[in-house]
Amino acid sequence: MQQNHNVTEFILLGLTQDPLKQKIVFVIFLIFYMGTVVGNMLIFVTIKSSRTLGSPMYFFLFYLSIADSCFSTSTASRLIVDALSAKKIISYNECMTQVFGLHLFGCMEIFVLILMAVDRYVAICKPLRYPTIMSRQVCIILIVLAWIGSFIPSTAQNILALRLPFCGPNLIDHYCCDLQPSLKLACMDTYMINLLLVSNSGAVCSTGFMILIISYIVILHSLRNRSAEGRKKALSTCTSHIIVVILFFGPCIFIYTRPPTTFPMDKTVAVFYTIGTPFLNPLIYTLRNAEVKNAMRQLWHGKIISENKG
To answer: Where is this chain's protein located in or outside the cell (predicted)?
Structure first.
């Protein structure tokens, strides 16, 4: 297969071509992106600073916040800049880097969500063995494995993308570079590559979703023997996780588990998991979590007191 590409840059069509709508897109997604960065920054500063948030659940939440921030940055930042640009040009190298970042941090989010489900399963179903099973050393090993597990499929995606010959045209009907919309521009038969994409990203999304659903069914089933107060606390935590899982995996599965076909709604659906979920995660995990809210209040209160003393 010839591996050269005559195209040195691509033009992203974005969410809309209408000048007025582009300004609306700029304002809306700038707010979303700033909310994502500030919200996730607040979460991992709170977790790092608080002595009460030392459990494995918050250890994994810290890395979920990092994955959310990087995942949103890899897509939203480009969308925001392009909304005010006359020509939405992205170089070939930038495009390939964005493909890599999108899949790296997307996979990391999937693996961290799975680790959070495992943590809840052990905490609820095996409470006496929880400190031993989910020790600090085990959690660190699991996070390292999650990074490795994210790096492998995202590198595979990039190898596929780099081997595609682009001879023109160079218009990508999307707001970011992803392998699926790019396949339409390759001057070769991409059927087999699309099958590899489905078996890679599609398998990661589908398998991750099934693992999470099964784990939460087991968890919810085990709650029947708990006290009313214990059930309420466990349900509150699990509900937050389930909301995140549905918001993230629903659009992912729709995009990455299909035959080689693209739909006009793909860009809108992609907004949910690339920008919407990273924005909502901090709200879901703080507004529905009393421990995080209390830790934030203590952190804020402590800073005010120290500033007054100073």
So the answer is: Cell membrane; Membrane
Q: d(Cα 13, Cα 87) in Å, to the nearest integer?
A: 9
Domain span at 46 = 9-309
Contacts of 297 (CB under 8 A, 6+ apart): none
Is 1 domain-assigned? no
Contact residues for 230 (Cβ-Cβ < 8 A; gap 6+): 223
Q: What predicted TM-score, i.e. pTM, was given to this entire model? A: 0.86
Instruction: Give the count of beta carbons closer than 10 Å to the beta carbon of residue 133.
Output: 15
Measured CA to CA, the distance from residue 68 to residue 275 in angstroms comes to: 9
Size of the chain in residues: 310
Q: Is 3 a member of any domain?
A: no
Along the 310 residues of the chain, how does pLDDT read in single tens digits? Answer: 344 457 888 999 888 888 899 999 999 999 999 999 999 998 888 888 887 888 898 999 999 999 999 999 998 888 998 888 878 899 999 999 999 999 899 999 999 999 988 998 898 888 889 999 999 999 999 999 999 999 998 898 888 888 888 887 888 888 888 888 888 888 888 777 777 777 777 788 888 899 888 888 888 888 777 777 767 777 777 787 788 888 888 888 888 877 666 667 788 888 888 888 899 888 887 766 777 878 878 777 665 555 445 5
CATH number at residue 212: 1.20.1070.10
